[in-house]
Amino acid sequence: MDYLFLIDILCLFCIIRKVEKTSFWDKSNKEKTIMNKKLMTMLVACALSVSALSTTAVFAEDAVVTGETPAVTETTPAPETTPAAYEPEITLLTPKWTGDSDIVFEVDAKGGAVYPQEMYVYGADDAAMPIISVPSKVEVNEEGKGKVTFTNDALKNAKTWDDTFTNQISVDWTKYSKIEFAFAFELNGQDKYKSMYVETSVKAPAPTVTPTTPAQPTTPTKPAENKGTTTTTTTTTKKEAPKTGDTMNVALYASLLLVSALAAVVLTTKKRITE
Is the pTM of this model over 0.70? Predict the structure, then answer.
C-alpha cells in the first residue's frame, strides 16, 4: 500500500506547485486563471479520493494481517424451568358419620396451604344442596401436614336453604346419605382443588318419655312424750242404726213416754198425801 501513499503525496505536491505559479488576481489572463482553477479542483478531488482509498486499504490490510474478527455477542436465553407438578394429599379419617362424632381429614399440602371450601349434601334423589357456613378447624405445620376437623356440634347446627332458596333452615340429617367437602390447596401460585365424600347415617332421635314419680306415703307424726303425765285419747266412733224402712222418730216418742210416766208418778204421790 506504499505506492498509493506515494501517489497521494505526489498529487498534493503538484497542487502546491501549481498554486505557487498561478496568480488568481491577474486580470490580463482571466481565461488561463479559470482553467487553472478547474485543474486545481480536479487535482484536489483526485488527491482526496486516493487518500480515502489508501486509508481504507490500510485498515483492510491490517485486519487481514492480524486476523482479528469483530466479536459478535450472542445472547442465549436461559431455559425455562417447568415447576414440578403440585400434588397435595388428603385422607378421610371418619369414613362414616352417624351424628355423634367429629369428621376429621388428614392433609399433606406439600409445603403449601389448605383452605376448606364449599359443602354439599345429597339425598335419595342424588340432588346436591349447599350447606351454609360450617366452621372448621385447620391445624397444619410449616410443611403443610396436619388435620382439618369439622366438629359434631358445628355439623348439627348447620344451615341450608329451603325448596325456594329464600329462607335458611336447619339441616335434617336424616334425609341425606352423604356430604361433599371441597378443599383448595396453594403453593407458589399453583392451585389444586380436591373433593372428599363422607357417607352419613343419622337416625331420628327417639321420643323422650318423662317417667312419673309416685307420691311418697305420709308418715304419721309421733306424739311427744311427757314424763309423769299420761294422756289417753279415746276415739268414739258413731255407729249409725241400721235402716229398716221406718221413718218414725223414736227419740221423740220415747221422751213423751218418759214424761207421761213421770207425771203419773207425781199425781199418784200427791193423791196419797191428800188422803
Answer: no
